[in-house]
Amino acid sequence: MSTESSAQNQPIASTGPAAVSVTGVGKVFASRKGADVTALEAVDLTIAPGEFVSLIGPSGCGKSTLLRLIADLDTPTSGSIEVFGKTARQARIDQAYGIAFQQAGLLPWRTVRANIELPLELHKVGKAERGARSSELLSLVGLADFADKYPDQLSGGMQQRVAIARSLAESPGLLLMDEPFGALDEMTRERMQTELVRICAETGAAVVFVTHSIPEAVFLSNRVVVMSPRPGRIRDVIAVDLGRAEGRGEGLREADSFFEAVVAVRESLHGEAAGAPAARGVDQR
Amino acid sequence: MTRTGSPLGRRVLLGVLGVVVLAAIWELYKALGPATGVVIGDLTVLPRTSDLAMPHVWDMVARLFRPVRSAGDDEMMWQAVLQASFFSLGVAAVGWFVGVVVGMVLAIFMQRFRTAESALLPWIVLSQTVPLIAIAPLVKRWGSQIEIGSFSWENWMSVALIASYLAFFPVSIGALRGLGSPDVNHVELMRTYSVGWWATLVRLRLPASVPYLLPALRLAAANAVIGTVVAEVSIGLRGGIGRMIVEYAAAAGGDPAKPWAPIFGAVLVGLLAAGVVALIGLALARYRRGETPA
């Protein structure tokens, strides 16, 4: 993967450390019977500040594992991970990232507002400031009228929006998302994608987004990282040039450039079967 | 709270109806059953229907409104029973509270340290197999040796201690399950917030344990009442329902309705204890959202 080519696709080429820098990372899960499972092998990936990168690949390709390593929910067996120039562990302690999972994971006994304020409350942010921040986030995700509702009174899509608002509570420079729309129906899913593009443009956060869906990855991303299983490694990094995030609307889903990018990602995913494996790490357009 | 469908009035009515049906069955059997009771082989499966064995329901109720000793000018029976009931309820409440605290501390300790769970849990289960009759005299004897400054151990404390011995068990088991109930998702979320064990306990594990804790508290209340009544008898504590049941049973020959008065008292204590726990459940309703009917 050449940094030059990816730099062209970033909204803003900012100075300073990369949002995420993964170098030679491998992860081996030791199983009880002695047959170790190699989840990741020799993974290199650099993500610039403000860049939206999707990880896509079949089950077992280690995309979620990679996300968990960046989040410091697991530690790599080899290699190193830096987030904004800090170790993954330090970045977690400093709250450098926000995270959202496939399940919204809201606390059922807290109102929508209290759920969004949870990280702020845990980090001893004052009450007035918390209230101001949660109001801001509630209107950002379009749930201002639902502040005092409980999670069980919301639809799945609304719950996921609350989870996204919560992940943004501390204005992190990096968002980690593990199939956040995986459990939603197609209509809601597309609406949420449009929302997410807008939210990311407003917050300027870099995003690592794990997904199964090719159109979703293409629609959202600056770059799509295609991974292959057993052992999990990066097969291809495909730059998607669909313009600045602000300009992406529903019309884009029917644009030719969108279809071309979808085809490129699909061919890469099925690449080796087609007998024309792309050189690893080289951008394909 | 899944059964809020029926209004309060209806539920009260159904409760009253249940008591009426029970009284009707009692009277029906008394009227129609064989005088010698139902006997299979040598075994009496249903009691004799004489007034001595089965006094009329109205006699039992009427007995409450006569003096304690039929002849004298004592206080009314219901007053004596009520007094004893509140005495027992107070002792049971102390036992319940101590049991809940001990049970919670044990559960939190076991949740925190896996080895503690393996080491403690079998003993906690085993503790409940020791018969109450066996430990009551021991507790009394050990207690009588405690005297620190102006504090001296009293018999009611022994009774409360035994009540707590029965009460802590469901709490520790229920709380242990409840504290372990949060999803991996939630636990990992707390980890991404890099907050420690204590904050995770207070913000996540304790609130999540409420649906498991409430049935445990109800069981603990029932256990505390039973423990109190039985321990009052075996320790010989005066003033409570347990002792009253034993004393009045001796009078059953001449006054068959009399022993039923303290039994009603024991029922009252149990109802009040259950009611208090129900109030706790109402206060914690926020933590029971999404609770699935068991």
Automatic annotation (TrEMBL), chain A:
<feature type="domain" description="ABC transporter">
    <location>
        <begin position="20"/>
        <end position="254"/>
    </location>
</feature>
<dbReference type="InterPro" id="IPR003439">
    <property type="entry name" value="ABC_transporter-like_ATP-bd"/>
</dbReference>
<dbReference type="InterPro" id="IPR027417">
    <property type="entry name" value="P-loop_NTPase"/>
</dbReference>
<dbReference type="Pfam" id="PF00005">
    <property type="entry name" value="ABC_tran"/>
</dbReference>
<dbReference type="InterPro" id="IPR017871">
    <property type="entry name" value="ABC_transporter-like_CS"/>
</dbReference>
<protein>
    <submittedName>
        <fullName>Nitrate ABC transporter ATPase</fullName>
    </submittedName>
</protein>
<keyword id="KW-0547">Nucleotide-binding</keyword>
<keyword id="KW-0067">ATP-binding</keyword>
<keyword id="KW-0813">Transport</keyword>
<dbReference type="InterPro" id="IPR050166">
    <property type="entry name" value="ABC_transporter_ATP-bind"/>
</dbReference>
<dbReference type="InterPro" id="IPR003593">
    <property type="entry name" value="AAA+_ATPase"/>
</dbReference>
UniProtKB/TrEMBL annotation, chain B:
<dbReference type="InterPro" id="IPR035906">
    <property type="entry name" value="MetI-like_sf"/>
</dbReference>
<keyword id="KW-0813">Transport</keyword>
<dbReference type="Pfam" id="PF00528">
    <property type="entry name" value="BPD_transp_1"/>
</dbReference>
<keyword id="KW-0812">Transmembrane</keyword>
<feature type="transmembrane region" description="Helical">
    <location>
        <begin position="12"/>
        <end position="29"/>
    </location>
</feature>
<keyword id="KW-1133">Transmembrane helix</keyword>
<feature type="domain" description="ABC transmembrane type-1">
    <location>
        <begin position="85"/>
        <end position="281"/>
    </location>
</feature>
<dbReference type="InterPro" id="IPR000515">
    <property type="entry name" value="MetI-like"/>
</dbReference>
<keyword id="KW-1003">Cell membrane</keyword>
<feature type="transmembrane region" description="Helical">
    <location>
        <begin position="159"/>
        <end position="180"/>
    </location>
</feature>
<protein>
    <submittedName>
        <fullName>ABC transporter permease</fullName>
    </submittedName>
</protein>
<feature type="transmembrane region" description="Helical">
    <location>
        <begin position="120"/>
        <end position="139"/>
    </location>
</feature>
<feature type="transmembrane region" description="Helical">
    <location>
        <begin position="263"/>
        <end position="285"/>
    </location>
</feature>
<feature type="transmembrane region" description="Helical">
    <location>
        <begin position="86"/>
        <end position="108"/>
    </location>
</feature>
<keyword id="KW-0472">Membrane</keyword>
<comment type="similarity">
    <text>Belongs to the binding-protein-dependent transport system permease family.</text>
</comment>
